[in-house]
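Hi everyone,

Forwarding the result from last night's run.
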Amino acid sequence: MNALRRGVHVIVATPGRVIDHLERGTLDLGTIKHVVLDEADEMLQMGFVDAIDHILSLVPPERQVALFSATLPTQIRRIAQKHLRDPREATVRAKTATSANIRQRYWLVSGIHKLDALTRLLEVEPFDAMLVFARTRQSTVDLVEKLKARGFSAAALNGDILQAQRERTIAALKAGKVDIVVATDVAARGIDVERITHVVNFDVPYDSESYVHRIGRTGRAGRSGEAILFISSRERNMLRIIERATRQPIEPMTLPTIQDVNARRAEKFKKELSEILSTQDLAAYRGVIEEFVHESGADIVDVAAALASMGRAGRSLFVAKRTTEMSGEVEGARDVNREVTRDAARDFPPEGRESIERKTSRPRRPEGPQAFFRLEVGRRHGVQPGNIVGALAHEGDLHGSEINGIDIRDDHTLVRLPAEIPEHVLKHLAEVQVRGRRLAIRRVELQRGGGKGRRRD
């Protein structure tokens, strides 16, 4: 505001900020001679068309306007016809739309199955750093939380993130402190990080130009890159449009099997063991282990396996065989994510604990006694049933049939789980974060009291 009072030659602003200053009376457009609309199609997608129209109506009629846009949809052409006088249109076309050293593949998957597909991809595909594109700001945040719950290092980039935080995230990506960045199209503009070996289109882009911009974040300076597109059967037409625009075929991917995932996990586990053996002083532990083996007569390999299980807080090293194999198009298949969500994302009814037993429509009941647990995240923190399900299923190694219901309150959540959850699993779950808050899980007793339908813990 001080700079505007003193007078400036050039103002670079978002449409919303210009409107804000106009309403405050801190910006006068009466002397504007040149107007540049940059990334016009992106501003259209962000809902700024009315704001642009209003701003251009306030600048002097004698001015020069330059409009830059990757695409020219109808609304952008309408603005050009209204506010530009006898405009000249210049089109810049590249000889080839995408770099030849970027291998492009697609994976036929849709809806809730995409998270499971991305997880398998991350488990099996060798990559250095990955840029994942989602369509909305909220999608970037949700996807990052789910990836973190599954043990991956990820960060979000979207329009709500301040510039300082954006710079820290990109610096962390360059330094190898973060391996996966989930971003929107606008937030990813200008990213040039050599580590990015893979670009994943988690959500299909709106148009082929956006696809070209996205995958251009990899395969730079002669390096090879991988571009993977998640697409559903309803979006096959967009696949053909993208192939015509890039003038390159997009080949189907072979789905990693559970055996592939488990083999990769075993390889990673052995690599971690090798690093510990070569870099850490294990003398103190050796003495204790030798003494334990001598006293107990236990097999040394069994002892090592028990220590590995302790290190993983009881979580299984391998994907359980109960996970349904995905083959062909994942759409319609019963994968683990779908199964868990269906079994667990029902709220407790208001009548109380007894009605839970009556109202469940699922014929299969969880085996063994169950108990109620309190989680210190609730509605005010923006938590959704899927956040709770993902954390419990993947961090607590719980099956969908073991998560019987979720009751999200204002500042906490109640959930029914197996009563005999090991203490080391509860201790691990207590430190898991959902929506930036620790679960701090603990057992509670639900009792009826104070009137019909009321409960207290």
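The CA atoms of residues 52 and 222 lie 39 Å apart.

Cheers,
N.
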